[in-house]
Amino acid sequence: MTLKEHLKNGIGINNFGHANNDMYMFIIPMILPLLKLEFNLSYVETGLILTAHIGVRSLFSYISGHLGDIYDKRIIISAGFLLTTIFLVGLIFVDNVIVLVIFLMLMAIGIATFHPLATALVGEIADPDYRGFHIGLFEATGSIGIILTTFIFGLLVGNWGWRYTVLLLSLPGIPLAWAYLKSKKEEIDTEVQAEISVDRFYILMFILGRGVRSIGNGAIFSFLPAFATDQLGISPGRASWLVTVMFLGNILGGPGSGWLSDKKNPLLIISISTLLAMPVVLGMTLSNSIWLVGLLCILLGVLNGGFFTPQNLWLTTVSTAATRGKVMGAAFLIDGISVTVAPTIYGWIADQIGMGGAFRWTLLPIGLSLIFFVKMYDLHRREQLEFRVGRAGY
Q: What is the DSSP code (8-state) at residue 94?
């Protein structure tokens, strides 16, 4: 499919939108240390602001998903980009802590509209035979946006200051809002609205397993630079690059696992990626080599891509056009809760037994989620003939 065809049917717009939306998500953690200094905030106050921002974003992921099942998803995404851009630019002029917090919360609402609705759109628009690959490509573009944000921010903030840097990064939001508003609403083939009929209990069980795994993922992502500093004795600047390295792996893992999921049961791919993540994390805690840890970070990123892509594909196939936004919103809500509580839990564990020990304890939620996914795959495999309606091959 050519770039023109991608843009025409909406897949290209969603990919560009994902890169930009994840760029907006990661601007906040990067400017918070600067806002802390400028507004004379304590670490506790800074942490509470970030927690509140993530909490509002998580809650409105579900709300926007529900609204997307009622109204045109593209209009809601367009409004989200507009809202985010307005209040991100507004941060440049803020000189009051209360106004700062209000703007950050309104930004969170705008950011929250994208993931559940755009993920559902990609699954609905894509060719059913290549749906997993397109969802994987969509996941990869989010990682590209994050990497670009860290690169551009690190390159410019020293000379331009955070205000002009944020202004530059905010610019794509307006044309994207316009593009979504003007994009054609695609007709969805009723035969692919729900390829699999699954009891709601199994969907809830799956989302719970996803949330448990996200506790481990959230802890690793939050403390990876601190882990590298403590474990390997490298500078914080060099340690922060390991996060970028992990996202590079995610760029590879998303489309690759999506391609596999088009041929095999996505639940099998999820189970395998979760299982393989455990020795990778353990290997990171046992190594004193920056090169080996860096290689394992790339591999962990690949496996994370191998987790999120097939699970979004599976949620797409078990939901209907009337409920898909709500299902995706619930999944992102649980993700957000897990990512919010993980740093507190594992920060406390690190205070007790060290960062290396805390990383080893992330194997607990990863292992528990593996039990969920293996059980789901077993149920799915045994009951396949009863509720398989769409394409064969699982």
A: -
> In this predicted model, what pLDDT tens digit does every residue of 44-62 receive, in sequence order?
787 788 888 888 998 999 9
Residue 349 is inside which H or E element, if any? Answer: helix 324-353
Contacts of 219 (CB under 8 A, 6+ apart): 342, 343, 345, 346, 358, 359, 362
Where do we find the tokens 């590209």?
Answer: 144
Instruction: Centre a 10 Å sphere on the Cβ of residue 26 and count the other Cβ atoms it contains.
Output: 18
Q: At 290, list the tokens.
A: 């920056």
Residues 252 and 247: their CA atoms lie apart, in Å, by 9
What would the pLDDT profile of 6-38 be if each residue is shown by its tens digit?
444 556 788 899 999 998 988 887 787 788 888
Rounded to whole angstroms, how far apart are CA atoms 3 and 15?
Answer: 11
Mean pLDDT over the full length of the chain: 83
Cα(87)–Cα(115) distance, integer angstroms:
19
Cα–Cα distance measured from residue 329 to residue 337, given in angstroms and rounded to the nearest whole number: 12
Give 127's DSSP letter.
Answer: -
Identify any residues that bridge with 196 across adjacent strands, giving them in sequence order.
388
Residue 100: partners with Cβ closer than 8 Å, 6 or more residues away? 35, 39, 49, 91, 94
Q: How far apart are the first and last CA of the chain?
A: 25
pTM, to two decimals: 0.82
DSSP H/E element including 67: helix 43-68
Does 393 or 26 have the greater pLDDT score? 26
Closest CA to 138 of 269, 265, 1, 251: 251
User: How far apart are the C-alpha atoms of 35 and 193, rounded to whole Å?
Assistant: 45
Check if the beta carbon of residue 338 is closer than 8 Å to that of residue 211.
yes
Burial class (CB in 10 A: 0-12, 13-18, 19+), 267: buried
